[in-house]
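Below is the data:
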Amino acid sequence: MTNKWKSTAALMLSAIPLVFTGALISDHAMASTMKISGNTTPLTIERIHASPALAGASPRGLKLSPDGSRVTYLASREDNQHFYDLWQMDISTAKRSMLLNADKLAGGELSDEEKARRERQRIYGQGIMEYFWADDGQALLIPAAGKLYFYTLADQKAQALNTGEGFVTDARLSPKGRYVSFVREQNIFVLELATEKLTQLTFDGKGPIKNGMAEFVAQEEMGRMTGYWWSPDESAIAFTRIDESGVELVTRNEIYADGIKLTEQRYPYAGKANVEIELGVIELASKAVQWIDLGKDKDIYLPRVKWLPDSKQLSFQWQSRDQQALDLRIIDLDVKAGSDAKANTVVKERSQAWINLHDDLHFLKQQQAFIWASERDGFKHLYLFDLSGKQIKQLTTGQWAVDDLEFVDEQAGWVYFSGRKDTVIERHLYRVSLTSDKIEKLSTKAGMHSAVFADKKPIYLDYFNSLIQPPQVSLHSDTGEHLMWVEQNEINQAHPLYDVAGLWQIPEFGQLKAEDGQALQYRLFKPTDFDASKKYPVVVRVYGGPHAQLVVNSWSEADYFSQYLLQQGFAVFQLDNRGSAHRGTQFEYVIYQNMGDAEVKDQKVGASYLRSLPFIDGDNIAIYGHSYGGYMALMSQFKAPDYFKAAISGAPVTDWRLYDTHYTERYMGNPDSNKQGYDASSITPYVENYQSGLLMYHGMADDNVLFENSTRVYKALQDEGKLFQMMDYPGSKHSMRGEKVRNHLYKSLAAFLERELK
C-alpha cells in the first residue's frame, strides 16, 4: 500500500500572489491565474491513457555511468508509452542516441513470481525495464523476461548469457563486475563472466524454503525487493533463508474473463504467523555458510542488510514484531567459517507507536563512522555515529523532515540530502557539512526535486517536476550549477500536452486546523470555466494513509482525471489529514491503534471549509479514493453521511484483519490485544449509516488488498437492503493497469459523479 522534466525561465509557484480567506491560517496560501501555454482542446478520458504520454519525454531508470561519461535512461516509444528502450546521452557532446533497442532481446512470458514482484515494485511495461552498469563503465547487464544479456559498449552487442534452464529473477552484477548473480527456483546462482562458469550456491530452496528472496511483506511493505547482498570485494554474499511453512496458505480465486484461476498464496494476515528468517554469509571460494545469530526471538523482521566497506563486517537492521524497536547491528565476520557470528548493537531506536524504516545508512571510508537517519526528536534527521554507536553529531535539526540521504562526499566533507526544510509541499536538494552546521540549498525551482548521483563524484541528475512542468532532467555540479539538459521536456507545439495545456488548471494552496491545532495542508482546483457567481459540486480526492502526501507542488498522472473533472464543471479538493507523511511523528502517530478516526475528522474539517465557500455547492460533495483512499471514502461517507453525498471506493481495505502483518500491526497493533481498535477501524459497524450514492470497484485478481475486502461490504450492504453500485474488473491487480481497463474505469467514475452530483 505503500518514482521520478519547462525551462529555467518558467514561473515558479513561490512567485504566486498570496490570497487569504477567513478560513486560512497559512502565510503560504497560494492562488494563481497562471496558465500553461497551449491549445484549448478539451481533455478526454481516452487521451489521458493513450500514447504518446501527456507528460512527454519522461525518462525512467536514470543513471550516470560509473566513469561519468554518459547518462543512461529508459525511454518509452511514441506509439506505446509502456514499451521501453535503453537510451544514452554523451555528456561531452550532449548527443542522445538509442543504446539498445528492446526488440533485439528475446521476449518471453514472465513467471508468476516475477509478475507479483513487478506488481509490488509498481513496475509496469514491456521491453527493457531495468539494467545495471559494470564498475568500469564499459558494459551493462540487462535482464529481459527471465533471460540475461551482457551488453558491451565496445562491441555494441547484447550477448545472451548461459544461465541454464528456468526463469531468472533478481539478477545483478557483482560490485567489481566479474560475476552475474541471480535467483532461480528459490536458490542463488553465480555466473563468472570470464569463464562462463555457473555455480549454484544454495540447494535447499523449494516449497516453503526460499534462499535470497524477499518475503511478501518485505517487498510490499518494507521496500526490500531482494534477499541477497554482495560484499564489496566479491568474496562473499550475505543472504536470507526464509521458511514460509508457518504462514497461512490461502487459496485465492483470481477471476479472469475466460475462467477462474485458483492461486495458492502464503498471505500473512494481521496477527497471524510470518515467515521465519535466517541470515547467512556464503563464501564464494569455499561455499561455506556462516550463520548469524539473530537472537532467541524468531518472530522478528529483517528489513535491511548492508556490508561495511572493508567486506569483513556486515550490518543488519533487526525489527521487533510490534515495530516499536529497531536495532542497527554490526557483525565482525573475520571468524572461523561455519560458526555463528555474534552481532553488536550500535543504534537502538524505540517508540511507543512505531519506527519508520528508511534507506539512509551510509558507512564512511575515511573514518570509522556512519550516517544514520532517525526520528528520535520528532522529525526525521541525519546523525553521525562512530562504529561503537556513540553519537558524534546531529547533522540536521529543526521542525522539518529530511526525505532521503542522497550522497556523501567525504573528501570535500559534504552530505547531500533531499528534504522539506523550506516548505512541506515541495522537496528540495540540500547539502550539510560533516564538520559544521552549515546547510546549503542547491535546488532553485519551486517543485519536487529528486537527485541521481554518480557513484564516485558529486555530480548529479536533477529529476524535477511541478504543477506547471512535467518531469524534466538536468545535469548539475556539486554546488547545484546547471550544466546541461538531459531532457528539457519543454511544452512547445510539438509536445503531447500542448493541445490540451491551455485548459490546465493550477490549484490554490492553504491550511486548515485539525481539532488538536495541527495544520492541515490542502489544495483546491477550481473548475475550468470558473464563475464566482455560480455554485459547483466538488470531488474530494483522498488517500489519507501513512507514508503518502497528495498536497504537493508536483506533476502527477493522477491529476489528469482531476483536470478532466474540472472541465466537466466540478471543483476538486485534496487535504492531507493527520497520519500522512513528512510532518513529523506527532502528526503521524495520531492514528496509532485507531485508524479511520482522526483521518475522517480531518476530512470533515475540509468538507466544512468547502461548505463555507460561496462558489461551492455544499449539498453536492463526493469523496473518491483508491486503496487506503478507498478505505477513507467508505469510512468518510459511512461515518459522516451528512458531509459526503456520494463516494467512490477503489480496492479498499474494509477490515484490517484481512490485511498483512507488517503494514497493519505497525499502525494497529495485534488484533488479539487491540480487538476494540480493529472493530472500530472496520467498515462494517458503520454500514447501517449509509444512505445512498456509493460506487465500489476492485480488481478481481488483486493479491495485495484481497477481493474479499470488497465482497464483505457488498454482502453487508445487501443484507441491510442498501442500494449501491459496483464495478469489478476480471484479471486486474491492485494497480488497475491497462489502457482499456483504465478507460472504462474512469468513464464509469465520471458518469457516476455526473448522476450523483448534478
